Amino acid sequence: MGHVLSDSIITLLNEWKIKTVIVKKKSELLDEWYQSGEDEAGPLYSCTKSVLSALIGIAIDRGELTSLDQKMAHILNCRSIVGDVGENITIKDLLTMTPGFDWPDFDKPYKELRASQDPITFALQQPIIHEPGQSFTYNSGGSHLLSAILTKVTGMSALEYGKRHLFEPMQFQFARWSERNGISEGGTGLSLYGQDLAKIGSLYIQDGVWEGKQLLSRDWTRESTRLHHRGLLNYEPPIYGGYGYHWWCSPAEHNDYADCYFAFGHGGQYLLMIPSLEIVIVIRKQITKRNDAIYARKLIFEHLVPSIVAQ
């Protein structure tokens, strides 16, 4: 298979303020382009959430978490804060962004969460206005609670746990993850090289196998990336999708091409996988306006995927 990035596509990359494009088939590099001339470490923004999902999966595989039905209040010993309704919130509810907290659209409380002295207590103190497991609300506070749960059951921050069980086995060049009070920030804060982010895509496309080793169970890679809630499938422009376990899901009828799932970060950062084509795509984009993320999506479905299929 030849190059995916034609001269006309590269012209668009500059127009659309794209900084990185990496395209792989399984673990084989098909093409890459960097605005600066080389791959660099940089923030993943909310793509961090999907890496955290992988670490939760490893903790399930290893038995450090026994079930997605485990109750958050039991692990974090927070029943006195969340009350009777909150006692029913499960790990699965947090993963699918359906814990029921009052968390206004597009993560509006995120800045307050980040500024608070104790982000865990801040997240737990938000009113519960929906029955857990029902209503989708995009909530980085819930992601931070997942990071706290991971640390509680493993004794390690998400960064330490990730290094031991994922980043070092896959020979990542570098990983930095912001933290507060020993808890890695759950919703954002991880910085990686683009090529290392793409490795996570290859791991999922290969059902959790990396260089002959099963780092993540096949069951987890499949269950965590399937549609569990309609999420933001109806959002316009269609830069999001439905939701799995901290992965976005876009069925073929949503993107006019193929069933896929993806990690998505502020402004148009993507780690996207198309299982039917065994394709992994990483896009990094300069932060402009929220809905400018549509340019990263147009690049994927109107240019990169047709170029791959044509070959």
Short description:
It contains 13 helices and 14 strands.
Query: How far do the termini sit from each other?
Result: 6 Å
Q: How many beta-strand segments?
A: 14
Give the quaternary arrangement of the chains.
Answer: single chain
Counting helices, strands and paired strands, the structural category is: alpha+beta
Radius of gyration over all CA atoms, rounded: 19 Å
Secondary-structure element string: HEEEHHHHHHHHEEEEHEEHEEHEEEH
Helix content: 25-40%
Low-confidence stretches: none
**Biggest sheet character:** 7 strands, antiparallel
Number of helices: 13
Strand order of the largest sheet: 2-1-14-13-12-11-10
Describe the structure.
It is a single chain. The chain is of the alpha+beta class and 311 residues long. The protein has 13 helices and 14 strands. It has helices at 7-15, 47-61, 72-76, 79-86, 91-95, 110-115, 119-124, 140-154, 158-167, 194-205, 218-223, 252-255, 293-310, and strands at residues 18-25, 28-34, 41-43, 176-177, 179-180, 183-184, 190-193, 209-210, 213-214, 242-243, 248-250, 260-265, 269-274, 279-285. Strand 8 (209-210) and strand 9 form a beta hairpin. The protein is globular. The mean pLDDT is 97.
Pick out its properties.
alpha+beta; 7-stranded antiparallel β-sheet; 3-stranded antiparallel β-sheet; 18% strand
Task: Please write out the topology.
Layout lengths: L6 H9 L2 E8 L2 E7 L6 E3 L3 H15 L10 H5 L2 H8 L4 H5 L14 H6 L3 H6 L15 H15 L3 H10 L8 E2 L1 E2 L2 E2 L5 E4 H12 L3 E2 L2 E2 L3 H6 L18 E2 L4 E3 L1 H4 L4 E6 L3 E6 L4 E7 L7 H18 L1
Antiparallel strand pairs: 1-2, 1-14, 3-7, 4-7, 5-6, 8-9, 10-11, 11-12, 12-13, 13-14
Helix pairs in contact: 2-8
